[in-house]
Amino acid sequence: MQRILVLNPKGGSGKTTVATQLASYFSSIGDSPLLVDMDPQGSSTRWLRKRGAERPLIHGVAGFERNTQVTRAWQMRVPPGAEHVVIDTPAAVPAHEMPGMTRTADAILVPVMPSDIDIHACSKCIADLLLVAKVRRDEHRIGVIANRVKRNTLVYQSLMRFLETLRIPVVATLRDSQNYVRAAEQGVGLHEMKASAASQDVEDWRPLLAWLKSREPTAAAAGGGSLPALAGG
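Predicted structure:
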């Protein structure tokens, strides 16, 4: 089982877009992934509720809710057969909570938008991951996603220069596309859209999916069927 954490304490960076698109991709290839929504805004949960019954199954957990009828461990359990767990984290995650959130993550994705404010926030997020959460660069668990970019702009060039200084891989560059808006409205993913409409955006995801494939744990290291690091989240 692969645990994928989508993290950036700054709101509006695209965490829900990345999380829901990953979940839909995994479901489209035959997995029945678990999408864990830890954000009190509940955007991933709303997206999941919009999916039609004819769509491939995605398990969902509204981790921001507290169900008094069951234990927290039971609420956060991973369903049998789910090979991927995608965790959509909230905004404003304090640095001292990052060690617990990242400890069992096989991959940590940090989406960042092309703006000065977002670049500054991304810099702090990466610093907290390295210095507070103690995620080592040589573990190759952190990947940055340049999100909603327009490649011919100065701010995009500035973003890419900044990302080069981090010595953290940029695992995807996603263009600013209306397909993401449609996907959010319909509860679908790019890989579930007509190829003629979404082919360019699907292509943008290939490097990220290849990177995640390389980060999949071996069977011996896959771990158990629960999310202990998030049980108190």
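Summary: Residues 195-214 form the longest helix (20 residues).
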